[in-house]
Every structure is written in C-alpha cells, then in structure tokens.
Amino acid sequence: GAGMGGRGFEVRALPGGFANSVWRVDAGPEAPGLGHRRVAKVFSELSRRRASAGDSSWGDVALKRGGLDSLGAGLVYASREGVVHEWLPGNSLSLESLLAEGEPLLECMAVRLAQLHTIRLPRQARALFWGWLRSMSDVAFRRGTRPCFGTSGRETLEREVAWAEAEVARAELGSPLVFCHGDLKPDNVIRVANDHGGADVTDLRFIDLELAGPNWRGLDVAKLFRAGTGGENTRPLTFEEGSESERALRAFAGHYCLASGVGDPERLVLEAKALLPLTWLEAHLFFRAASSLETCSTRRETLSELAEHRWECYLGTRAALTSYSAELRRG
Asked: What whole-number percentage of the chain has pLDDT above 90?
C-alpha cells in the first residue's frame, strides 16, 4: 500500500525515540519509481494507546488534508500500523540553537507554529491531554506491573491529575483549543538543508506528529522552550523572569501573535509558564508506562530513571501552575 513492495531496498534502523521503530529506506536499481530515500515508522503499542482514537497517523493525515504538506515531512502513506514520509535532509533544532540564534530563528519558528495551529479541528473538540494521562496511567498501573521505584503510587498521581485539570479549567486555558503538535520538543523540528547543503532558517518542518490534535497552544510553546531534559543542563526548570529561556519565550510570543493575527503575547507567555509543569507530569507517566511494557531489564531501568527525573521536575515546577493560572484569571 505504501508503494514500496518488491525487491531492491536497503533498510536501516534509525535512532528513534522511546515509542516507535523508525527505518531509513533506500531504493536500489531494482526498485524503479521510488525515486529517493524514505523514512518508515512503525507504531508501537504505547504510541497507539496515546493517540487520538488509537490512530497515531491522524496528525500527519490532518496536515496533508489541510493542504499544509510544507509544514511536515511529506506524507507518502499512512495507516494505523505506521507511516511513510519523504526523507528530509537537514538537522533537528535544539533549545541551544533557539536561544543562540535569536530573532530570525524564533520568528520563523513562531510563523510555522502559528500555521500549524490553524488546521481545522473536529466540531466540539476536547483537549487530548487528560486522555493521554489517563491512558498512560492505565498502562503503568495495570495488574502485575512492577512499581516504579521511588515514585508515587496511582492514588497520588490520580489526585495530581484531578487537581491540575481543575486548575486549568479555572484559568480558562481550554478555550479556544488549537491543532497542537503535542510533542513539540526542539528535536521534533527539522531545519531542512537548502540546495547548497547549508541550513535554511525559513524551512522548518514538524516531525513525530503522533500526538497532534486539539490542545492548548501554550502546551506546544512550553515544551519548545523547556529546559532540564539533559543530565548536564544547568538552566532553571521554570521560566524565571529575565532568564535566557524567558527572554526567548517572550520574543517568540510576540512573533507568534503577530503571525496568527490574534491574541496577546503576554497571555501566551503566561499560558506556557502555567502549563510547563504538566509537560513534566505527562512525561513522567509516559516513561512509567514505557517501563511497564519493557522486557529488557537494562532498558527498563533506564526508563524508570527517566520517570524519576520527570517526576522530580514536575514537583519542582508544580507551583507555577497555581501562580500563573491565578495571573491568567486576573486577566
């Protein structure tokens, strides 16, 4: 169905994330018609559990149907089992590049994200975020699962989720919802190389759209500028006033609101600051769920350590949801 049947292909595993298997597919002389390199992704059980209606290809398909192929990797084929994309020559962004390169890159990133957020949503769409948390909790705490060492139990986590949901509702972050990427870490944005092999700041493409769908715009922005995922990262976890990350966030918010034609940049900054703790809570539950499904003891230990770290990050930023939600309520 992907137009890749027959012989003459060289397939190599690519370093991927924690949820899916990703492969580079090169056509040989016996495979006419493919033309050039593709990327094939096979969805894991965990990816399907997190996705809207269990279909991890929904975000890629929505991008194509919306006529915004130029924002993504060029979808070739999609099904519930996986997707095939064009190969994008270039490199992933990083938080360091966003902070170091300043206005030109921040403006382009803001314009591209504003375009992504314009994709039409289904009527009466609801935020996907709370469903992610509950589905990951069901996997992490299914019967027979070993407890994640040192972290809190299901009762505590369910209490935290209920508290956070109430805080978000009071801050009126759920209106309006937009078509969010859902996992907008900088390394899920590719800066495509130009014809001469150099980086083109104006051609940024979104990849890994398995979590795309209705959510709060601030969730994407918070993940884009979030620090603290690397062991050597010494930046503060929160967007402290005047910090490098906070200045970049403010510059980005100005460009985003100008590009979208709606919204107050200061409100977007507050939304990102308020939602930052929830990105850590979601990551914690994801790694707990991934650990519960892992059969390799070494990899399971690594996933458990990542879950521990994300839980600590959540606790370290939790107060921001309360304080910035209060600011949003005050208007």
From this structure: 66
